[in-house]
Design goal:
2 strands; two-stranded antiparallel ribbon
């Protein structure tokens, strides 16, 4: 029983960070219907820049995070303005290919220019273990997951209660109507991309601290897509539910199935869950159904 609870708690801790990165994906898709397949490289670069700021620049971790956030936000806003805006009205595959190309470019440039620099992110209590009865709980993972949860609910509150959040939601619902009432679509879409970049930086830092691994494109395919597809591409609460399901089931599979069938059972379970959810409800658990006129 203790082993089962250990796996459940570990899965929920991982799921909190999955949810944060999933939010970065949902923010852009909800605002502009863009599937950002370069997000994994944003997460990777955000963590790398933060680590370099600490190790090479001698900055406190919060200052390093702020620097990485500023750099990636500028990149996100520029990409939206220079590339995405020019592809509006084109086939969705053109936008997907553009985001994939951006990810490849980011990986190549960061490897060439930053590859030899130390980028480990120091975090207090790394290596320590707390015990809840017979259940081990690493305090660094607990703190990282707690920060992720706070950021997730901060994003939900921003989109629900702030004027800018309501404006972005209005643009997502009907861009023409939003423009008609004086909302600047260009300005608020740039803000959505900037928020996504900020969440990617925070997710990358917490992902590193949590020891989850799998940066880059592999992160999107193996972790983020299952989370947002299961929960619903347009739903923030759905991302939380999807992240919790993926984190827990992945951990249970690793604990019980990996010793029997070998490594990789977590990804297998996630894939089966995605197919099952899409079969029953193609929009995801909490995804909005689109009205179709017949």
């Amino acid at each position: 029983m203790d082993y089962f609870l250990t796996l459940i708690i570990g899965g929920l801790l991982s799921g909190a960070v999955y949810a944060l990165v999933g939010m970065a994906f949902v923010v852009v898709y909800r605002a502009s219907s863009v599937l950002n397949f370069s997000l994994g490289e944003w997460v990777s670069l955000g963590a790398r820049l933060t680590g370099i700021g600490v190790q090479v620049g001698g900055l406190p971790i919060l200052a390093a995070v702020a620097g990485a956030l500023g750099a990636l936000s500028l990149l996100a806003i520029a990409f939206n303005r220079i590339v995405i805006r020019r592809l509006i009205g084109r086939p969705v595959t053109a936008i997907v290919m553009a985001t994939l190309a951006l990810g490849i470019l980011m990986r190549a440039v960061s490897s060439l220019s930053l590859g030899g620099l130390p980028n480990e992110i120091p975090f207090p209590m790394t290596g320590e273990v707390w015990w809840w009865g017979e259940i081990p709980i690493p305090p660094a993972r607990l703190m990282a997951s707690g920060i992720a949860i706070l950021l997730v609910f901060a994003v939900i509150a921003f989109f629900r209660f702030s004027r800018a959040g309501v404006a972005i939601r209005a643009i997502a619902d009907d861009p023409q109507a939003a423009t008609g009432v004086g909302i600047s679509v260009t300005r608020y879409l740039a803000m959505a991309w900037g928020i996504s970049a900020g969440l990617a930086v925070a997710g990358g830092v917490l992902w590193s601290i949590d020891g989850l691994g799998g940066f880059g494109m592999a992160l999107i395919l193996a972790k983020v897509l299952p989370v947002v597809v299961i929960g619903g591409l347009t739903s923030f609460p759905g991302a939380i539910i999807g992240a919790a399901l993926v984190g827990v089931l992945e951990n249970l599979a690793a604990g019980y199935l990996d010793p029997i069938i070998g490594t990789g059972s977590g990804g297998l379970i996630s894939g089966i869950l995605v197919i099952g959810v899409l079969w029953i409800r193609p929009t995801g658990i909490l995804g909005a159904r689109q009205a179709v006129r017949v």
